[in-house]
User: What shape does this take?
Amino acid sequence: MTTLATAPSPGFDAPGVEDFNLPPIFGEVTKPVLLFVLAAVLVWAFFTITSRRPQLVPSKTQFLGESFHGIVRNSIARDNIGHDYLKYVPYLTTLFAFILVNNLFGIIPLIQFPSFSHPGMAYALAAMSWLIYNAVGIRKHGFVGYLRVSTWPPGVPWWVRIILTPIEFLSNILLRPVTLSLRLFGNMFAGHLLLLVFILGGEYMLLHSETLLVNFLSPFAFAMGIVFTFFEAFIQVVQAYVFTILTASYIGTVLADDH
Amino acid sequence: MNRTLLAAEELNPLVPHPVEIIVGTIAFILLFLVLRRTAFPQFEKVYAERTDKIEGGLRRAEEAQEHAQALKAQYEEQLAGLRAEAARIRDDARAEGQQIKAELRAEAEAEAARIRQRGEEQIAAAREQAVRELRGEIGGLSVQLAERIVGDSLADPARRSATVDSFLAELDQMTPRREQAAPAGGAG
Amino acid sequence: MVVGNLNVIGYGLAAIGPGIGVGIVFAAFINGVARQPEARGQLQGIAFIGMALSEALAILGLVLAFALPA
Assistant: This one.
């Protein structure tokens, strides 16, 4: 569908969408399904081990868990939600850890598949965040009040409002979960595709090319693959962070008294 | 490259797999519920304890400082009292000392006066005795002298004593005159 | 001869604006931190939110490149 096959090398079939359609391992269970379960188990194990026998002066493992929890608690939840933030810290921490581990699966050897490059779970998490911040808003302002708060910016002339209110409604209510999920999915998808292009391309240059020069150039492709692996690691952390901070920011906007 | 083209019916990457959504959502919600009950309260508890410890420490330090301030004030008060008392005692001691000194001086003066008086008395007595002895001796010497000069004419004791007495009276009269003349004439 | 999908060209065009936007966001972030290093924590969250918002357009372009029929 999107393959830009160039004429001089008809033999190399560039990686594309079909690389993401993994065959089911058994029954309906595909690789991402197992990865989600694995990620949940890993996150559970991490927090269970680090929170066992907590002490005032933390041990090294406790310090790991505490700093992770503390980052989400203080720099994401508290700075974006404001007072009353403690209620949302468990959800945000779970969200961050779960997305982060699933993203990092993309560069962990032998797993090497970011499970959010399949969009299903990204949709599900975005829907969850959407439900939460709408529920919080409706509980605080009432249904009509919430609609008014999120689509009726104060101090705007009526003729601007004709255009602005639908846009606000669209962006605040409808598009937020869409961009939230698609951002995560798109980054993981594109990042994985990028790595595939360099690694599979390097492999093709090394093994299947008839020209000797191209064979010798393949290390550059692998080197670029390694460089982009580090870049992907950064992107994966940032995307997990962005998903969490945007959820927190939406909750904070909804909770804010003066909108 | 074993490109898997068998899943061609789902080529659009935007179409989600229902199994993933179901299993993933269940896993996530379970994870959330479990962690919310087990791990995160532990962290919060530790944070709360830590905050409490720090704030409690501050409060305790404040209390200790207040206590120390009160003690200090009390000590200063006591110290001021003690200082006043010490001054009073010192004044008393000084007064007493002066009194004692004055008494001692008076006593010593009295003693000195007494000693001096006795000395004067002794001197007077010695002088009297000396005068008396001298008188007797002078009398004897004069008689001897006169006997040698005039012979035995004056052997009669009655006449002799009358003569001597008159002579001595003359001497006594002469003595004040000489004493009056002494400061002027300077002779002994 | 080049065979391909016009959607990808469209996505490439759609990525220009968000690219510039993300650059502006982080330039402002760096400026802000250079002026007030102590405000780094607050600015970081805002910078990432801004990046996410402008990046959303690029992501929408990517998704539409796949979603629309060729």
The helical segments of chain C are 6-35, 40-67. The interface with chain B takes residues 63, 66-67 of chain C (CB under 8 Å). Chain C has a mean pLDDT of 86.
